[in-house]
Amino acid sequence: MTTANTPNTHDLEKELLEFLEERTGTAWDADTDLVDAGGLSSLFAMQVVVHLEKTYAIAVRGADLRLDNFSTVRRMAELVDRLRVPAAGGRHG
Known about the structure:
Pfam families: PP-binding (PF00550). The protein is an all-alpha fold. It has helices spanning 9-24, 42-56, 73-84.
């Protein structure tokens, strides 16, 4: 996926909701707490991390591996958006 084709936050949420529905057989809302609702175990959360890294060309490391970053689709989309932003002084374009 190239930078020019990266989805905006709304599209990202839609893609993640589709991914989760395919994997769990359940339709979710972007703000549903997936952990509390039983849709996200710690093992499945790691599968989601791999999916995010491969699909959006990001690296989820260290403090970003907290389960609360994956508790809702909205939080996952925010994490992806944050990790896609180039670091200050990094390459642009």
